[in-house]
Amino acid sequence: QAAAGGARAAPRACGVHNVCRLLIRRAHGFYARDAGVAHRKNLGLLRKIMCQESTKFKNVWTTHSASPIAYERGRIYMDNYQCCITSIAQGPRILYQKSKCTKSEKIEDALLLECPLGEMLPNPSDYKPSLIVLTVQNWLLRLSADSGEVLEKVYLAGSCCKFFRYLSWDTPQEVMIVKSAQNKPPSGARQAGIRQTVLFYLAVFQVLPLSFIGMLEINKKIFGNSVTDVAVSNGILIVMYSMGLVRLYNFKAILEQFMERPYDLGQEFNWNGQVGVVGKYPFGLPCNIKITDTPPLLFEASSLENAFQIGGYPWHYIITPNKRKHKGVFHICSLKDNALAKNGIQDMKCCSLEPDWIYFHPDMSGRIIHVGPNLIKVLKLKEVKNHADQMEIAEDFTIVANRENCVNNSVTVTASGRVVKKRFTSLDDDPEQETFKIVDYEDELDLLSTVAVTQIGADGRAHLDFHCNDHGILLKSIPLQESWDVTYSHEVYFDKDLILHIEQKPNRRFSCYVYQMVCDTAKDDDC
User: Fold this and answer.
1) How far apart are the C-alpha atoms of 238 and 220, rounded to whole Å?
2) Does the residue 228 lie in any domain?
3) Does any domain span residue 369?
4) Which segments cross the bilayer (predicted)?
5) 3-state SS of 239-263?
């Protein structure tokens, strides 16, 4: 009867047509046959276990390298991606080790490619994670993430471009952009008065299965002489200029309007009178998208150092007024009408060597994170009371560095009674005071993580803290065992039950420290 009752209950659940009610019921786990329910419950359990007092993070592995170290989804890459180490096992172990590559095979950039859900793919290997890499000789390779085996290879550079260097996502895990280095004419051409008008080349690919959409050039004749950089994100072509101007164009519309004809990888085509094959050496890819006129402008803004971000709901953007004196001042404006939000000027008035920074929260809540040396503000957009068409910036919560023992008096009195006045005040990011260096978000556990550092003498100490993403409450603090030098470059990754710290020292020396979650059974027998 219970089984029958459960079977009868299913249609009633499916009959709920209100979107909000459906989402609430799903979050509460009403639909037990939903594949995501068990996964969400498991992640909830992992979060509770991880934040217990008895749970510790232990340094299980340390390595050093003369080449950069990269981390992607549980895999550590070393020796220019020739060595892959998994960090998911009990202890890190080598997945594959390839022979040392030559200079011509050096990898310039890489992206991790994961299988899309619910799609039929042509090859069994497409269902497993793979690594898209770009070599110095303009080869685009798709490698197995588990073995390093080459699954696909595409030659990019034809007669038009010889220097592809950067990989990025237009739409994550769907559309990929391969960008060239800025095209600069040789000195001989400049002396001869030959003008080079093409600045960048962009090659566009659909991934899984890997297919060529088109290639286009960014030309001075179309976009102007002062272009310094370009990027593509979420269907928007972003063009940046030397005077701080940022212009946005509809990238999809550009592809549709200016594509001369589509080409497929492996297809024969005529290249300057010679028959070539798309994506094969030596012909590469055709430049089949020719922008002949300036595309319609979607939006433009002027910002210091081209710093420009879009997010929130309704849509807003963040800029810094384009004057050096405004560095560290952020304006939050409506994308619809450029109106400055109420309380939309955010200025921490920091006196520090490193500037504060601001960005839209990656949890898609529309909130904003503003990070200073000793203060993290999480801000939210909300309607102004009695003015539904106007938005204001309100404080959601703050996280403050632990500086309880810090005394910074400008006037001190010696034991003999002499009054001493300081000629200077200490900086907000004084290394001897706890200072925030990294703020990140773990989406699967819904935790906000912060790295705070205090350096006394030559020895710096850091700790990674986990905060409730909704209210900012401190849930756990984990001290990092290794010394932290604030003059070095650092990256910290928090991925479920793993913490990974990559450090770059002078003279291209790199170190990697791996921590894994362990339970202290002496304190908690239930772990």
Assistant:
1) 15
2) yes
3) no
4) 198-218, 230-249
5) EEECCCEEEEEEHHHHHHHHECCCC
